Amino acid sequence: MQHEARxxxxxxxxxxxxxxPGNTSSAVIIGDHNPQCSIEEVESATAMLTLYGNxxxxxxxxxxxxxxxxxxxxxxxxxxxxxxxxxxxGSEVVIVLVAKLPDTISLSWIYFxxxxxxxxxxxxxxxxxxxxxxxxxxxxxxxxxxxxxxxxSMYFGFAAxxxxxxxxxxxxxxxxxxxxxxxALVMRIxxxxxxxxxxxxxLLHRQARPTPSQAEPKSLRQTLLEKTKFLQMxxxxxxxxxxxxxxxxxLAAVNTIMFGAFMGAMNVLLLYSEYTFGWGNKESGIFxxxxxxxxxxxxxxxxxxxxxxxxxxxxxxxxxxxxxxxDLLLMRTSILSDIVGxxxxxxxxxxxxxxISGVVAAFGAIGLPTSEASMTKLVGGARTGELLGALGFLxxxxxxxxxTIANLVYSWTVARVxxxxxWGVAACFTAAGLAxxxxxxxxxGTKDDFEDAVPLQAKDLSDVE
Length: 465
What we know:
Elements: H1 2-8, H2 40-75, H3 78-100, H4 110-119, H5 122-137, H6 140-169, H7 177-198, H8 220-227, H9 242-277, H10 281-314, H11 325-347, H12 351-362, H13 367-376, H14 384-413, H15 420-435, H16 456-464
């Protein structure tokens, strides 16, 4: 119903018969700018439709992400990563079938794609497992840069995707939207094959824990406690010092708030710009490409250079392996960039200043990889997957709550104060900035006391020596 509302509301005439050139048509042209849809009712209905999809994928992702993460500690990173990617491939196949056979397959099957996305752990799980892989293969001093490269690669895909999709979809002067989906399927298959055939495992093979032949029946309370056990690593005594537990909780809060604020604003940014500035797909695509290009630069260029230049100022020993003041400085700088950017979104009077605000906010991209790398410095390698899986649960919950609130607020205020959402997002980033003051870095730059699991690459180096 929401989908139909977006394509039917705003129609001023029932037919196109007799339309003269230059008149505004009531028909909706897929892939083009349709000004008759730029009305308050359609904006509100679209926000609600997106909300439902995020709820489905987010709830299932919150349930499955922690268990994928813990599974990667037992089986290695590659197999779970390939399995989750295969489930996402299934969701993309369903999308293609629905689009290709609209008279045979109901549009309701689109919601099944959200189910599959949720079972895969969503892209949150993919990034968590990739980050765990990077943590296995790098020392603590190099981890910020490695995770920055992973996040930067994702942002580069966000930047290049709309541009390449636009050229491919309009190849030879004809609109071919399905060609984009076919190419995406092929790329997904090639990616899975590359993972399984060419990417080496980052962890040593571990013996599986013995499973009792006859398990005793468990009470409902025991079952619920076991299902949420992955969150205990933030508070249990197994996380060594009280200071470490405090840092884990503080950094998890910072990361979750930043991620939630980013996800909550993502859809509203496009709706707001199309409604306020009259942007079509072309302008929105340029905006996304520019912003994500600068996110790529921030993650892959600015972050490594900042660490190289500032590290000597924050470490008397030159090299160390702990969570330190430089990590906090990078997080606070990124949060300040986000605050300035989202305030700019709220007050921008035109599309140019709106885009410039996006460029400023793009330098906040260094915050997520820095906070994740900081947390991996606080736990041993044997629990990195569990940590990032638990963080994936928190991010999945943020993906449910933040877009839900943002879309509801935008839906309710679009007729009066549509920019109110951006002030709210800026307030969330302010809260994340305040949470950084709860963390206490290691003044001497030493690493916390944990027994690290030895990654496969480290074993190979020790054998050579």
